[in-house]
Design goal:
The protein is built from four helices and 23 strands. The protein is mainly β. Strands 2, 3, 4, 5, 6, 7, 8, 9, 10 and 11 form a ten-stranded mixed β-sheet that branches. It has a six-stranded mixed barrel with strand order 16-17-21-18-20-19. The radius of gyration is 19 Å and the shape is globular. 43% of the residues are buried.
Length: 299
């Protein structure tokens, strides 16, 4: 399925926690249009990643945004290979939907929103090619979460995107020299920028960020997943070590983690042996260009 993958997704934990602690939806902001938000130059376009809703902790970061005159929140997740609008939000603000081409037998149609204009507070407006519409857990609506944005798909011909998990910011920066990462503290995740893996399904571009690394000394291909709390490996990847005190290495960055295991069948061309979660990426900076990604992490 497009954005739903068999993995340890951080928000699944948030749903349970918020249900038990009666998380309330944040107070609505005064209605305003996208043009009312302050405009910043490319080098100053920076959003702050948020981890709390009305005093309750969120394990996955989000940004505040406007869609037309409607305020909402969007999760930021490199593990989402496409942009997603929650069905509750699309229905509430009456976004026009179109059907994705093709349909698997016995499956409900996949619905799209063409060119949704989303204005991210501090970051500025982004005109997405499309976003898929998915049914979500009721807690999305309770917390005012309108969907999930894939930072690797927010890049434009003029601007790269910098996801700074050291300072908890999402930033629009000039593409020229962006992948050099000069002035960024830390060790390189890769010696050279790596390519994103793109595949087309039913007219939708899916972009997965894959890097080579080792888990417990075994060579693996890993997907960068800032939305997952824990680094995991596919249980079907025979012989890949996991469990407590497992060394995960990507480029010059080595961390000893409690690596989990999940059931996941490989599908499509962008397959992976494991997911690198925020236990590895929490002190990292990732920069996305049109089809490449570079990263540095504090040790």
């Amino acid at each position: 399925m497009f954005a739903q993958r068999a993995r340890h997704h951080a928000l699944a934990i948030a749903f349970v926690c918020c249900a038990l602690t009666s998380c309330d939806r944040g107070q609505a902001r005064e209605p305003q249009t996208a043009n009312d938000l302050p405009r910043e130059s490319t080098s100053d376009a920076r959003a702050t990643l948020q981890y709390e809703v009305d005093g309750h902790s969120m394990p996955q970061p989000y940004v505040n945004a406007m869609v037309g005159t409607h305020a909402t929140r969007f999760l930021i997740d490199t593990g989402s290979n496409t942009n997603v609008i929650a069905r509750w939000f699309a229905d509430e603000i009456q976004l026009p939907l179109t059907r994705a081409p093709g349909n698997a037998a016995g499956q409900p149609p996949v619905m799209l929103i063409d060119h949704p204009l989303i204005d991210i507070e501090g970051f500025g407006a982004v005109d997405l090619d499309s976003a898929i519409v998915v049914e979500t857990n009721a807690i999305f609506e309770e917390l005012g979460i309108g969907g999930t944005l894939s930072p690797q798909l927010l890049v434009t011909n003029e601007s790269a995107v910098r996801l700074d998990l050291q300072r908890d910011t999402l930033e629009r920066i000039p593409r020229t020299g962006a992948l050099n990462m000069e002035g960024t503290d830390g060790e390189l995740l890769t010696r050279t920028p790596v390519g994103a893996c793109d595949e087309m399904q039913r007219g939708i571009v899916l972009r997965t960020l894959l890097v080579r690394g080792t888990v417990g000394g075994s060579d693996v291909q890993l997907a960068l997943d800032s939305g997952a709390l824990q680094t995991v490996v596919r249980s079907q990847s025979a012989g890949t070590p996991h469990g407590a005190d497992t060394v995960v290495s990507i480029g010059s960055v080595n961390r000893t983690l409690d690596v989990g295991a999940i059931e996941h069948e490989a599908a499509g061309r962008c397959t992976w042996d494991g997911l690198v979660g925020r236990d590895f990426l929490s002190n990292c900076v990732l920069v996305f260009d049109l089809d490449r990604v570079a990263g540095k992490c504090l040790i």
